[in-house]
Specification:
Distance between the termini: 33 Å
Structural class: mainly alpha
Helix content: over 70%
Strand content: under 5%
């Protein structure tokens, strides 16, 4: 089960990475080509509450747990570990700048998973920076 959560073709994972970065064409492509959960994941990473609810309501709690874990939610981090979602756990922890998880991913994950993780980290860091900037309060991406 540990790898099943991200068994998508390499190009789909790369499309998700670009969708997370804000590429509207690839967001639409994911939505229209049988990957609504990845479209919603990209939206949820950007703090879109309807997408977060959709993931939970439509059988993708592991993707929402990865997002929450990447936001320092310790309960989500433990849940991913408990249910053997090791790739998602290490993506989340790498997004949180945990060096051990970056090492784990380099050893155990494909290059496109590493690219996706870096894309999520960049966006999450930008969101955090905006939330900490008094001139950009609640200016989410």
């Amino acid at each position: 089960m540990s790898q099943a959560q991200l068994t998508y073709p390499s190009l789909v994972i790369l499309a998700l990475a670009k969708a997370v970065e804000g590429n509207k064409e690839l967001q639409l492509w994911l939505q229209e080509n049988g990957y609504p959960e990845l479209f919603m994941t990209a939206q949820a990473i950007r703090l879109q509450d309807p997408a977060r609810k959709w993931l939970l309501a439509n059988g993708y709690p592991h993707l929402m747990a990865m997002i929450s874990a990447a936001e320092a939610n310790e309960k989500a981090q433990r849940w991913l570990q408990q249910y053997d979602y090791w790739t998602l756990y290490h993506i989340a922890m790498a997004v949180e700048h945990e060096k051990e998880s970056w090492f784990w991913l380099r050893k155990n994950a494909s290059p496109e998973i590493i690219i996706l993780t870096k894309s999520i980290q960049v966006i999450k860091d930008q969101i955090e920076e905006n939330h900490n900037d008094v001139h950009a309060i609640h200016k989410d991406l």
